[in-house]
Design goal:
By secondary structure, the protein is mainly α. The chain has helices at 2-26, 36-55, 65-68, 73-90, 104-118, 125-157, 166-200, 210-225, 228-232, 259-265, 276-292, 302-309, 313-322, 328-345, 354-360, 366-377, 381-391. The chain is built from 17 helices and no strands.
Length: 392
């Protein structure tokens, strides 16, 4: 009865893990803190729970060795976790070939387990003892490396220039501390199981006290489900934002930057407030648009801005809904006209036409450019150019 209950819980936790992985895939582009390595960790953990549950449920009639073949998969999760922390620290999401070196030992261990089930020559005391000590040393080595990466991340989160970003610090540090704790407990439990099975003379599977694995990973999956910042993204370490005096330059016709004005604009029961986090997002938008001129691409959309800023699209939509006096399209055209004025001041029209100017700043033709230009400046492009000549 206990085995059936344990198998049911194992299957439940495994399928919850698969569900979380699916949600992460849907938000992969916008969630900068999800990369291939954390997905590998969650996928192998979920797979292990599912195979364990299937083997120990009688009506599936799977061979008991089916799960044993894949025991070293747990070892694959350890270097994957290290690589996840390293990628989080360095802000990269690509898979590098050199990372494959971290998986050599787990794959060798997986191969040895398979050979031991097929050939008696590999079933001897010396080989098993050597494998046990190699697993222990492997685990200890990666725990040291993980702690070193953790120190770097904590130092980066709490460096002096980020003191004002306390909410972001709390979210990131809470997530990292939680998964570090889970990883350490899981690793210690694995080592304990291997040593216990070796001393008991049982087949070394690492499955002793498996209910502990079920409980701690159940907590981990629950933590992820109830922290949507992890599933759908929160600002990454590279783009930590800070408020400076330049933010006051944006007090124009676009943004609502004081709570009184915000309350007068919105009458919802739960009203948004102007806090440092949202001001920081606005600051990042303005800085990126000003320095990178992304709106010169005619088909540039809000989701493209979210991708370039490494934030979920919902963040951009929220800001323009509650903190902007104009919608995204109007904002885009306003910035394009400012870009056009800058190019005119830089003598763009000395050897180019107004049509070329309109295309250069992102309009598909001259007519919408003319309308937007006159709406913003009360002058046609030609009249603005003539006014520059008069000043000269």
């Amino acid at each position: 009865m206990y085995i059936q209950f344990e198998s049911f819980l194992s299957l439940l936790v495994g399928f919850i893990g698969i569900f979380i992985i699916i949600l992460m895939f849907f938000s992969y582009k916008s969630n900068v803190n999800v990369n291939i390595y954390i997905i590998i960790v969650l996928a192998f953990a979920s797979f292990r729970f599912i195979t364990y549950g299937l083997v120990h449920l009688d009506f599936f009639e799977l061979h008991p060795n089916f799960h044993t073949y894949f025991i070293p998969i747990s070892l694959i999760a350890i270097p994957s976790f290290l690589l996840y922390l390293r990628a989080l620290l360095m802000d990269y999401r690509s898979f590098y070939k050199r990372d494959l070196l971290h998986f050599i030992f787990p794959l060798l261990s997986l191969t040895l387990n398979f050979l031991q089930t097929k050939f008696e020559v590999f079933q001897n005391h010396t080989i098993e003892l050597t494998q046990i000590w190699c697993v222990v040393l492997f685990f200890m080595l990666y725990m040291v490396l993980i702690v070193l990466e953790l120190k770097k991340i904590i130092a980066k989160i709490f460096k002096p220039k980020n003191k004002g970003n306390t909410e972001h610090q709390w979210v990131v540090s809470r997530w990292i501390i939680f998964i570090i704790t889970i990883a350490i407990i899981s690793g210690l439990k694995l080592v304990l199981s291997v040593v216990y099975e070796y001393r008991s003379g049982d087949i070394i599977t690492g499955n002793s006290f498996f209910i502990i694995n079920i409980l701690i990973w159940g907590l981990k999956f629950g933590f992820i489900l109830f922290n949507i910042e992890i599933l759908y993204g929160f600002p990454n370490l590279k783009t930590d934002v800070k408020i400076d005096s330049n933010l006051f330059l944006y007090k124009d016709s676009t943004w609502i930057l004081d709570n009184k004005h915000l309350e007068s604009q919105h009458n919802e029961i739960v009203q948004p407030t102007v806090d440092k986090k949202n001001l920081a997002y606005i600051h990042n938008i303005e800085k990126f648009v000003t320095t990178q001129s992304p709106f010169r691409v005619s088909e540039y959309k809000a989701k493209d801005l979210a991708k370039d800023l490494n934030v979920p699209s919902s963040h951009i939509a929220y800001l323009f809904k509650y903190y902007s006096k104009i919608n995204f399209t109007e904002f885009k055209n306003t910035k394009r006209i400012k870009d056009a004025i800058f190019l005119i001041d830089q003598d763009f029209l000395v050897d180019k036409t107004f049509d070329a100017l309109a295309t250069q700043v992102g309009f598909t033709s001259y007519n919408p450019f003319f309308v937007a230009f006159k709406k913003q400046t009360n002058l046609s492009p030609a009249q603005y150019l003539q006014s520059l000549g008069a000043k000269t």
